[in-house]
Amino acid sequence: MRMSVEESFSLSWDNLIRGMTACVVVLVFTLAAIFGLVLENFWLRIVIVLYLFCVLIIPLLWAPQRYLVKGNLVTVQRRVGDVRILVSREPEHWKWTWLGLRLFASGGLYGYFGYFYMKRIGSVRMYATNRHNMVLLVDEKGKKILVSPNEVDRFIQQLKKSVLLAENK
């Protein structure tokens, strides 16, 4: 019996994520400095500055960091709570489309993660950071998930082997 090996897949930010994240960080620091200087009430100043920094910190905790593949299980590693996806169908390369809605998600700050609705595939969860490296996964419940490993072809091949083996059992 052959044991499956866990493979790690890195990810990187596309230019939109880099630009949007940089702009939001600059905006938050600018607003924090303005409120810090303008507001007279010490406690109100502290609350507003803390709130602004939470805008930066909280999404960072749920942003995808890397993907691990072992058999047909994909683990999305995050700073808070990894996500495990049991892939039931062959993964496929997916081309980004702007025809969609962000339902409950981050659509640019540190990545694209959360719940989206995309015209061609319907409801989808996304754990991605690069629009140009998208892979569509379908789990055992039929739910669709988009991820964006740097090595798309290797990621797909690794999963295809495991999904085919699982289907043949």
Quick summary:
This protein has 169 residues and is of the alpha+beta class.
Polypeptide structure, described:
With 169 residues, the chain is an alpha+beta fold. The chain has one domain. 37% of the residues lie in helices and 31% in strands. It has three helices and ten strands. The protein has helices at 15-38, 42-62, 152-168; strands at 7-9, 64-70, 73-78, 83-86, 92-93, 100-107, 112-118, 122-128, 135-138, 144-147. It has a six-stranded mixed beta sheet with strand order 5-9-10-8-7-6, with helices on one face. Strands 1-2-3-4 form a four-stranded antiparallel beta sheet, with helices on one face. The longest helix is centred in the first third of the chain and has 24 residues, at 15-38. The radius of gyration is 19 Å and the shape is elongated. It starts with 6 loop residues before the first strand and ends with a helix. The model has no long low-confidence stretch (mean pLDDT 88).
